[in-house]
Design a protein that fits this description.
The structure holds two protein chains of two kinds. By secondary structure, chain A is of the alpha/beta class. Chain A has 23 helices and 13 strands. In chain A, a hairpin with a 2-residue loop joins strand 12 (548-553) and strand 13 (556-562). In chain A, helix 11 (280-290) runs antiparallel to helix 12 (298-313). Chain B folds into two domains: 1-31; 40-109, no CATH class. Chain B has helices at 3-20, 41-54, 57-78, 82-99. The relative contact order of chain B is 0.10. The chains are: A alpha/beta, B mainly alpha.
Chain lengths: 640, 109
């Protein structure tokens, strides 16, 4: 009993001493209180108050220098003069006289007090109840979000790149085991590594992806200007398709043109690629893989098909130049004529033995190319544009999208591995392959295989999905992807963030229990033990608002408010007289009519009149585009 | 020595220096001009008005008024003392540190 009374007396004495000091140093106390209030309101870290105190050094220096010059001594008389002014009721004079000392000291004291408050709340030892720490943390989170939103809204406060060419994603809400800065700054090398983006619909995933692509492009342009690397190339595979993909493609075009892209091609709506530019051996492999095969007895037909395709592609007259050319070659008569007697006996024998299967193989390829459309029939190459936005209808037509994905990846691999056309000293191109919802088309090309292949080719790969499960079909593949994402993982609002947050690891934290003294009353006595707490709190991520993201990298997390990129107004609307595909070089612009073999083109009677056919390259929602008939007439001649 | 030839030589050397700074093949990357190292003072001063216009001019004016008011009050209440000089320095430091957030190169970014 006496011990408790003694403790109470000691505590009262300490409090009285503290109050006396606070009154004695009233100006310092006032500044400290203002500092703590500002830190509470803005959700600041104590470091910000310490930095503010450091910025008072010029004031302190000028004050000391002026004192030394005027009084020939460094012994400042301001405190005494301030007390005298206060005594005479001249409060403003007193404030001015004491400010050079009181402001830095107060900010320092405020920083210490705020640091103590944060530490005690983190240890759950402060507040009236143990739950006070939780509500304090939630309140601080709200304040931090508000401050980050204000920073993002300020014009020019969040640039795309820093002066050192580092990428800025947005404003920091809170950082755990990452540097506590105002802006989420990533070294440019992080963008050139592999990254993963996970976020459900409506959480700001597209905003983040556009910013990441624009950042990649802008840093790549700077590296190109400094002759550290070749020109950039971004290939986006949007594997879901649908009207939403076209809207995103349009957004991407505007944003990336603002970020320095010379031309942005949207495939297959507005631009084409040519499968027939692949090297012959690669072309055979790709063509055979485009057709879905069975197993068991069907392997026989696969072998026959490969033999026939090889004969068609490696004919002495050279590889096929178009779909029509290839389909013409899938004919026993053509193959027999293509390999003349004397020197090609083996091939002639092969063509003869496979003659019965050739019509079936031709039928399968004819069907495949009809479903694929003209997008892979050229002309055009990935090198013709800085950005390729490829829309694969993975939701509506899975088999077609799978074949397209396979062909596009092979084409990109071919472009990357091909020796540069320029001089030997020409630096390598910087290539980013961004795949969105690749799991929709990954049945025949597993995502990890794509990832590993891209890594081996020196590409940067960015995989995005709506959920952890959308990353890959199998759990092993998901973990394989996540653990090799050296550039970090971006996690937006998602209902199941736990597998990803687990990758960020745990951190030590104090878990304090307090003794219950009565109904809803807790004593300050209790015990603490060291426990583990997730670095990235999954509940916090579940409650993300749109535009908020957690960047997980190297066992730390930065909660970020993403800054939306607004395109240059000059790129929003097409210029007067520009055709809809004005961003495309002529070489890659989609032809006005599909280039298909005559056998696959429907009879003229079934084709609706030209006036009723909407132009293929008009984007939904964009009306009033200029008339391009004169351009088409100039390119292809007047209509019959 | 032919003076016209000498002038041409000097001009060519200057031209080479300029293009050297621009990077590969003339160096002009669309949308990303290579920043020059030597910025004349007049150029810097001319660059300020667009920064203010694209930023938050109202807030900047408020900050300027606050600094002016604080400095005036300090001098009026305490006279030209070391403390009032210190307060003026502190106010100007605050303006320099925080006023930058009210300037912007491009309002959209």
């Amino acid at each position: 009993m006496s011990r408790t009374a003694g403790q109470l007396a000691l505590r009262a004495l300490a409090a009285a001493a503290l109050v006396a000091i606070a009154i004695g140093l009233l100006p310092v106390t006032l500044v400290a209180a203002i500092g703590v209030a500002a830190a509470w309101d803005g959700g600041w870290q104590p470091g910000r108050l310490y930095r503010a105190a450091a910025w008072c050094l010029p004031m302190l220096t000028v004050w000391l220098a002026a004192t030394a010059i005027s009084r020939h001594s460094l012994a400042a008389a301001s405190p005494q003069l301030a007390w005298l002014a206060l005594d005479r009721g001249r409060y403003l004079t007193a404030a001015v006289l004491i400010a050079p000392l009181a402001v830095p000291a107060g900010l320092l004291a405020g920083g210490l007090a705020w640091s103590f408050r944060l530490a005690s709340m983190a240890a759950q030892s402060a507040g009236r109840s143990p739950a006070a720490a939780v509500s304090f943390d939630d309140r601080q989170w709200r304040h931090q979000v508000r401050a980050a939103k204000a920073l993002v809204a300020a014009p020019g406060a969040v640039p795309l790149l820093t002066r050192r060419s580092d990428f800025v994603a947005g404003a920091v809400i809170r950082a755990v085991r990452h540097p506590a800065r105002q802006l989420t700054v990533l070294p440019a090398s992080r963008l050139r590594s592999h990254q993963i983006v996970i976020g459900a619909t409506g959480t700001g995933k597209t905003t983040l992806l556009l910013r990441l692509w624009a950042g990649y492009l802008a840093t790549a342009r700077r590296r190109q200007a400094a002759r550290q690397a070749g020109s950039p190339l971004i290939v986006v595979l949007d594997c879901k398709g649908g009207a939403d993909a076209r809207r995103v493609a349009d957004q991407a075009r505007r944003v990336l043109r603002s970020a320095g892209a010379g031309n942005v091609a949207v495939w297959p709506g507005e631009a084409c690629l040519s499968l027939w530019t692949l090297p012959a051996r690669q072309l055979i492999s790709t063509l055979v893989d485009l057709i879905e095969h069975g197993t068991g007895g069907a392997a026989y037909y696969t072998d026959v098909m490969e033999a026939v395709v090889t004969l068609a592609v490696e004919a002495p007259c050279g590889p096929p130049a178009s779909t029509a050319d290839f389909l013409t070659r899938l004919d026993a008569g053509w193959l027999g004529l293509a390999y003349p007697a004397g020197g090609y006996e083996g091939q002639r024998a092969l063509a003869g033995s496979a003659a019965r299967q050739v019509p079936d193989i031709a039928l399968r390829f004819r069907t495949l190319f009809r479903r694929l459309g003209p997008g892979l029939d050229g002309p055009g190459s990935f090198t013709d544009a800085d950005v390729w936005y490829c829309i694969l209808e993975g939701t509506a037509e899975v088999a077609v999208a799978e074949a397209q994905a396979r062909a596009l990846v092979d084409l990109l691999a071919s472009v990357v591995t091909r020796a540069p056309d320029g001089p030997a000293s020409e630096p390598e191109r910087q290539v980013l392959l961004a795949v969105d919802e690749f799991s929709a088309v990954a049945r025949r090309l597993p995502i990890w295989q794509l990832f590993e292949r891209a890594r081996s080719l020196g590409l940067s790969v960015q995989v995005s999905a709506q959920s952890w499960h959308g990353l890959a079909a199998r759990q092993d593949d998901r973990y394989r992807l996540a653990t090799t994402a050296e550039g970090g993982i971006w996690l937006l609002g998602t209902p199941h963030p736990d597998p990803v947050t687990a990758l960020a690891g745990q951190r030590a934290s104090l878990d304090t229990s307090r003794q219950l003294a009565g109904r809803l009353r807790w004593m300050r006595h209790g015990s603490s033990r060291l426990g583990d707490k997730p670095v990235a709190d999954p509940d916090r991520i579940r409650g993300f608002e749109p535009g908020q993201a957690a960047y997980i990298h190297h066992g730390g997390v930065t909660f970020t408010q993403i800054k939306q990129l607004v395109p240059d107004p000059a790129t929003v609307l097409p210029r007067r007289g520009d055709p809809p595909g004005e961003h495309m070089p002529d070489a890659v612009a989609a032809p006005a009519e599909p280039v298909l073999p005559a056998s696959t083109v429907p009879p003229a009677s079934t084709v609706p009149p030209a006036s009723t056919v909407p132009p293929a390259n008009v984007l939904p929602g964009v009306s009033g585009l200029p008339d391009v008939s004169s351009l088409l007439d100039a390119a292809f001649g007047p209509p019959p | 020595m032919n003076p016209v030839g000498a002038l041409r030589l000097v001009a060519r050397r200057l031209l080479i220096r300029v293009t050297d700074r621009r990077g590969p093949a003339g160096g002009r990357v669309p949308g990303h001009p290579v920043p020059s190292r030597n910025k004349p003072l007049a150029g810097l001063l001319l660059a300020v008005p667009p920064l203010i216009r694209h930023g938050r001019p109202a807030r900047l004016v408020f900050r300027l008024v606050a600094v002016a008011a604080t400095s005036t009050l300090a001098v009026l209440s305490a006279g030209w003392q070391p403390a009032s000089l210190g307060v003026i320095t502190g106010a100007l430091t605050w303006l320099l540190c925080t006023g930058r957030s009210d300037l912007a190169r491009d309002r959209r970014r």
